[in-house]
Amino acid sequence: MSNEINRRHFLKDLGVGAAVTLTACSPSNRQDSDVAGGSGKRLGSMTMRTNLTDDSVSILGYGCMRWKMKNAPDGHGQMVDQEDVNHLVDYALEHGVNYFDTSPVYLQGQSEKALGEALHRHPRNSYLVATKMSNFSNSTFENSVLMYQKSKEYLQVETIDYYLLHSISSADAYRKRFVDNGVIDFLLKEKEAGRIRHLGFSFHGNKECFDYLMEQPYHWDFVQIQMNYVDWNHAGNDCNAIYMYQQLADRNIPVVIMEPLLGGRLSNLPQHLASKLLQREPEYTVASWAFRFAGTFPKVLTVLSGMTYMEHLQDNVFTFSPLEPLDNDELSFLEEVAGIYKQASIIPCNDCKYCMPCKYGIDIPTILMHYNKYINEGTLPANSQDPQYRKYRRAYLASYNKVIERERQADHCIGCSECVSHCPQHIRIPRELQRIDKFIETLKQDVL
Question: Other C-beta atoms within 10 Å of 10: how many?
Answer without folding.
Answer: 13
